[in-house]
Amino acid sequence: MGERILVTGGAGFIGSELVSQLVAEGHEVIVADNLVNGKRANLDHLEGTRCTLAVVDIRDQQAMASLMKGVSIVYHLACLGVRHSLHDPLANHDVNATGSLTVLEAARRAGVPRFVYVSSSEVYGTARYAPMSEDHPTFPMTVYGGGKLAGECYARALHRVHGYPTVVVRPFNSFGQRSHHEGDSGEVIPKFMLRAMAGREMVIFGDGAQTRDFTHVSDTARGIRLAGMSEAAIGQTINLGQGSEISMNALASAIALAVGRPDAPVCYDSPRPGDVLRLIADSSLARDILGFVPQVSLKDGLRQLHRWYLAGHVPAERLLHDEHTHNWTVEHAA
User: Fold this and answer.
1) φ, ψ for residue 136 (rounded to 5)?
2) What is the spatial distance between Cα 189 and Cα 179, in angstroms, rounded to a whole number?
3) Rounded Cα distance, 204 and 178, in Å
4) By three-state DSSP, how is residue 76 classified?
5) Fewer Cβ atoms within 10 A, N terminus or C terminus of the chain?
6) How many CB atoms are closer than 10 A to CB 65?
7) Packing angle, helices 13-24 and 217-227, rounded to 10
8) Cis peptide before 131 (omega within 30 of 0)
9) For position 334, what pLDDT does the model report?
10) Residue 1: what pLDDT?
11) C-alpha distances out from residue 86 to 21, 77, 80, Å
12) pLDDT value of position 332
């Protein structure tokens, strides 16, 4: 019958893909999400399966303790994002750092046998060498990155002091179906794609030379899932990335081709505050411990995302009503 598994943030972008994979494996999944960034619609395809949604805040100690009963693995993904931390750093820290400690302690006290803390490549800041291994120095450039790093430290501390079996994973940038384009959760690939589909300019901040390592969400979620199933992963900190980098200029061109608009316009704006200039993962540890090898290329993933938007039958122009260019400012965050 599979395990009983708790996924915090399971109605979000990566979380809903992880939940889908766990359900497909025959597990019973409890999703804990306050629906600030997550959406009920992200779980609609799982109706009638062994998946239930608990609308709770991860900072609610009593609620989290009650959800731990009978759980074999906690996958902790719930967080507020990078751009949110620029306009509301205290709330961002409270959810990402304090909230993570609340969930960790609830799981430890309940005796949950495994805890997977999902961090972020943002803990590194800009690459000082490439590719970036898990030993790369951590110099986060935002409160988001700092809060994620704090959560990592809490997970490792509970493992070292109490012997609690935790795993830390650091996904690099993910993309794919159910990705966020809206508000302060909006990310570059869905924002670029919807703008290109609607005939609008794709907005590049700075000179466009900054790079990212994009991994399809199905691969990211698979790596996270495997981290919770591997005995060898306990106590480890593990990167999850494609292992290749692309500049924002090249990404805009790739997206224009993927949507069939090779002449889609691009414009340039001032650099974003807190923007990391270079990220590229060394995921050899994930390969060695988890057998993690990404299966979806950026080119194929972009085509899949385009087809997904078309299948949703919602015009790109309408979706862009919730997309804001300067989504790190208070007035454009919602």
Assistant:
1) -60, 140
2) 9
3) 22
4) strand
5) N
6) 15
7) 60
8) yes
9) 59
10) 64
11) 33, 20, 11
12) 62
Distance CA 58, CA 187 (A): 24
Q: Is the pTM of this model over 0.85?
A: yes
Residue the block writes with tokens 């994620």: 148
Yes or no: is domain 180-213+244-277+297-332 CATH 3.90.25.10? yes
By residue count, the chain amounts to 334
Helix (H) or strand (E) run with residue 251 in it: helix 248-258
Could you say which architecture CATH assigns to the domain 4-174+215-240?
Answer: 3-Layer(aba) Sandwich (3.40)
Q: What is the pLDDT of residue 330?
A: 80
List strand residue ranges (DSSP E) for 152-200, in order: 166-171, 174-175
How far apart (Å, rounded) are the C-alpha atoms in residues 164 and 156? 9
What are the residue ranges spanned by the domains of the chain?
A: 4-174+215-240, 180-213+244-277+297-332
Residue the block writes with tokens 């395809």: 45
Cα 267 to the center of its chain, rounded Å? 27
Euclidean distance between the first and final Cα of the chain, in Å? 41
DSSP 96: I
Q: pLDDT below 70 — which residues of the chain?
A: 1, 332-334
Dihedrals phi, psi of 175, to nearest 5 degrees? -150, 160
With tokens 């999400």, the residue in question is 33
Closest CA to 81 of 157, 156, 182: 182
Residues 264, 122: Cα–Cα separation, whole Å? 30
Q: Is 144 a residue of the active site?
A: yes
